Amino acid sequence: MSRFTGQPCRREQVAEAACAASELLEVLWGRGQEAAPSGPVPPSQLRALLVIETHEGANLRTLGEALGSRPSSVSRLCDRMEAMGLVTRSQSRASRREVELRLSRRGHQALDEYRAFRTREVGLVLERMEPSDVLMLAEGLSAFRAAASQAQGVGAEAAEASVRSHVADSA
Prior knowledge:
This protein has seven helices and two strands; from the N terminus they run H-H-H-H-E-E-H-H-H. By secondary structure, the protein is mainly alpha-helical.
């Protein structure tokens, strides 16, 4: 039930609202991407870095599945990220035919910089909201992240705990 209209919220309407908010977030975050001290990282590489961080030591197949990309595209993407010093590739301990992907120090630094910038940008928007609305948003985002993590095979409990700790810090 929408607290504004008293009408039931349809999932389609909520999905549209989430997409609109996501688009605004992309605009906010895109502004600082070029100014990052470690240099700009294209969105496709940023997504790959996030997956590699979550699945440290993953192979190209795992990265491709997480990104929904073909093996040849993932291999070229990793070539570019390795050339930029963002990832390292090493032979897998489990199979000589596979390569393990890991974030380099520079890759970790790039993610830290983007997260710090994004946190500042979102914080500026949250300051303009009522505290009760911030709390409701945090609760909704926590549930959304848990559901999305389950859909991607990530531990939902760990994802929810991470969101709760961030919510506690911002409240």
